[in-house]
């Protein structure tokens, strides 16, 4: 777990290590099957996979990059700044999310497992079943990493989370936990998912009222809460930018007074 956070070279070596990722996935599957999602070893395994999924789209081996992408895309490595508006145009994003992934392998191996639907469903299962904050945060964080880029892989993962695996109810529950970092990571994941225009109606219907309910009444003092607030505003912006229906949802959820209060603060 410590080694997996040692930087890009460490991640590369661990992703290339024969059988390592497969073993981690195998262990977590066994823990879930045995109804033991809260043991420490499962937490460690998920945290390792979380770290190995960081900047995955940018660090993919050339062979995978060529098979998944028509061209290598320049992706911002800084995904931590709580800014509220993207610089990429909506037309560019729509074009990228229309680019399909190759057909998913039924029996993935090694690094292929990191973005496979099997592991995505495992993360969602742990979010729903585990009560360990670190396991919840790592599962949410891995999905956040996998949906953070601008190529076809992040948008394919987003579709799996929202439409194929019905992951929004589990993510919505995490919006109301008391642990601030778990909540922040859940909101950051929703921010990434909300960039996909084909998923915005589903996301708004499932979680927009919840996002408004956890939006603070005033500008928060805590850095973590401030970043969470910025991510909520970014998500609401994405959801309402081109949908009058979603804008009405925001209005009916009494989100406007909170947003006005936040926007008027220096």
Automatic annotation (TrEMBL):
<dbReference type="GO" id="GO:0072659">
    <property type="term" value="P:protein localization to plasma membrane"/>
</dbReference>
<dbReference type="InterPro" id="IPR016024">
    <property type="entry name" value="ARM-type_fold"/>
</dbReference>
<dbReference type="GO" id="GO:0007507">
    <property type="term" value="P:heart development"/>
</dbReference>
<keyword id="KW-0130">Cell adhesion</keyword>
<dbReference type="GO" id="GO:0005634">
    <property type="term" value="C:nucleus"/>
</dbReference>
<dbReference type="GO" id="GO:0005886">
    <property type="term" value="C:plasma membrane"/>
</dbReference>
<keyword id="KW-0965">Cell junction</keyword>
<protein>
    <submittedName>
        <fullName>PKP2 protein</fullName>
    </submittedName>
</protein>
<keyword id="KW-0677">Repeat</keyword>
<dbReference type="InterPro" id="IPR011989">
    <property type="entry name" value="ARM-like"/>
</dbReference>
<dbReference type="GO" id="GO:0045110">
    <property type="term" value="P:intermediate filament bundle assembly"/>
</dbReference>
<feature type="region of interest" description="Disordered">
    <location>
        <begin position="79"/>
        <end position="109"/>
    </location>
</feature>
<dbReference type="GO" id="GO:0005912">
    <property type="term" value="C:adherens junction"/>
</dbReference>
<dbReference type="InterPro" id="IPR028435">
    <property type="entry name" value="Plakophilin/d_Catenin"/>
</dbReference>
<dbReference type="InterPro" id="IPR000225">
    <property type="entry name" value="Armadillo"/>
</dbReference>
<dbReference type="GO" id="GO:0014704">
    <property type="term" value="C:intercalated disc"/>
</dbReference>
<dbReference type="GO" id="GO:0098609">
    <property type="term" value="P:cell-cell adhesion"/>
</dbReference>
<dbReference type="GO" id="GO:0005737">
    <property type="term" value="C:cytoplasm"/>
</dbReference>
<feature type="compositionally biased region" description="Basic and acidic residues">
    <location>
        <begin position="94"/>
        <end position="107"/>
    </location>
</feature>
<comment type="similarity">
    <text>Belongs to the beta-catenin family.</text>
</comment>
<dbReference type="GO" id="GO:0002934">
    <property type="term" value="P:desmosome organization"/>
</dbReference>
